[in-house]
């Protein structure tokens, strides 16, 4: 009985701790999003799935939703890209146009040809980008994107996964960072947050 009571009390304490921890994270997030602009973003130069060079300047004048991933991702990236497609359609239905942009974190395998084939499975408005190792490094550094080979010890250089940040970055028409959306957020939640950022012409 004593052990049972200890287990119950201990479990309750852990539950309370998790709740308090979640509250602290939420309070911190609110503070971050309400005090100034985050130091995210910057110039980049890549190439699209048709082999055409693109820079951040090409998308000025348009709202943008950036996602960093890789085409050999078995489940998370495809799921997030489908979610982004739903978001793009819904905000467009409500009068707001947002350009979805996919930037590869796996330049070794994500060639122009590979991106071109991959793009056929997703929303037609998507812009798929890749580049050299240095170009990709510059783009990911600008947005503080984490990525690393998940199984570098494997001898097969073509068969590996990439751990990476699972985040969507929302930018205004000036290319400035406005907000970010995590994997845990649903498409309707993201749509609501995007629409709140829409600038109504005077």
Word description of this protein:
- By secondary structure, this protein is of the alpha+beta class.
- The protein has 2 domains: 36 residues; 151 residues, Glutaredoxin (3-Layer(aba) Sandwich), CATH 3.40.30.
- Helix content is 39%, strand content 21%.
- Helix 2 packs across helix 5.
- It starts with a helix and ends in a 7-residue tail after the last helix.
Report a brief summary of the structure.
The chain has 202 residues and is an alpha+beta fold. Helices cover 39% and strands 21% of the residues. It folds into two domains: 36 residues; 151 residues, Glutaredoxin, CATH 3.40.30.10.
Task: Reconstruct the topology from this structure.
Blueprint: H1 2-34, E1 45-48, E2 53-55, E3 63-69, H2 76-93, E4 98-104, H3 112-119, E5 127-130, H4 133-142, E6 147-149, E7 162-164, E8 167-171, E9 177-182, H5 187-195
Parallel strand pairs: 3-4, 4-5
Antiparallel strand pairs: 1-2, 1-5, 3-8, 6-7, 8-9
The CATH homologous superfamily of the largest domain corresponds to Glutaredoxin
Rg is 20 Å
Main sheet properties:
7 strands, mixed
Q: What name is given to the CATH topology of the largest domain?
A: Glutaredoxin
Order of helices and strands: HEEEHEHEHEEEEH
Total strand segments? 9
Tell me the number of helical segments per DSSP (H or I, 4 or more residues long). 5
The secondary structure category is alpha+beta
* Proper CATH architecture of the largest domain: 3-Layer(aba) Sandwich
Q: Going across the major beta sheet, what is the strand order?
A: 2-1-5-4-3-8-9
Principal-axes shape call: globular
Helix content: 25-40%
Low-confidence stretches: 3-9, 11-18, 21-35
Number of domains: 2
N/C terminus separation = 70 Å
CATH uppermost class of the largest domain: Alpha Beta
């Amino acid at each position: 009985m004593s052990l049972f009571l200890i287990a119950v009390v201990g479990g309750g304490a852990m539950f309370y701790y998790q709740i308090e921890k979640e509250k602290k994270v939420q309070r911190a997030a609110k503070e971050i999003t309400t005090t100034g602009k985050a130091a995210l973003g910057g110039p980049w130069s890549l190439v699209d799935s048709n082999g055409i060079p693109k820079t951040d300047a090409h998308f000025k004048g348009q709202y943008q939703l950036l996602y960093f991933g890789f085409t050999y991702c078995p489940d998370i990236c495809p799921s997030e890209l489908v979610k982004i497609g739903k978001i793009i359609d819904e905000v467009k239905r409500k009068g707001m146009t947002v350009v979805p942009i996919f930037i590869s974190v796996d330049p070794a395998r994500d060639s122009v040809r590979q991106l071109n084939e991959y793009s056929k499975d997703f929303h037609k408005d998507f812009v798929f980008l890749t580049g050299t190792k240095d170009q990709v490094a510059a783009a990911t550094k600008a947005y503080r994107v984490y990525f690393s080979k998940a199984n570098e010890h494997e001898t097969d250089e073509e068969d590996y996964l990439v751990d990476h940040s699972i985040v969507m970055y929302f930018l205004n028409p000036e290319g400035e960072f406005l907000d970010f959306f995590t994997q845990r957020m649903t498409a309707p939640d993201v749509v609501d947050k995007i629409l709140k950022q829409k600038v109504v012409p005077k």
